[in-house]
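The records we work with from here on pair a chain with its fold. A complete example follows; check for yourself that the lines match position by position.
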Amino acid sequence: MAEPAGVLPKEGIRLALTATDKWDAIRRSGALLRELGAVEAGYPEAMLERERSVSTYIGEGVAIPHGTDESRALVRRTTLGVLRFPDGVDWDGQPVTICVAIAAKGDEHVTVLSALARILMDPARAERLRTSSSAEEVHELLSGLGDGIGEGIQA
């Protein structure tokens, strides 16, 4: 069963951040998941390890930093965080303005990726995600990401 705050708690949406590079953005993503109580101390390092093996950039200005398969043991509960970098972050030559940080206990990240892909395939919704300055709007845009995971995303 999901925590009362749901998979994407509103306090997990940060919209006015800066990062020096993708590594800084991933560290901030891991720190947010730690702050939300979703992961143990070693998980942020596992997110960096994942990025060293395969890029988490998925297109449309979005990256999905997450840990390695081995790091699932460090996940307390499946949780998402959204970090927006309005000035963009260079992600191997691609500009990233949104990081969806993922802590998944099992294969739940596949459900999240599928829902996120549907949002990004809609140019208007993808643009709103990249440019919104309202945590409530971002929460509403991403409300489907939790479908099929525990209780889903709740207000």
Observations:
- Residues 81 and 101 are 5 Å apart (CA to CA).
- The chain is about 35% helix and 20% strand.
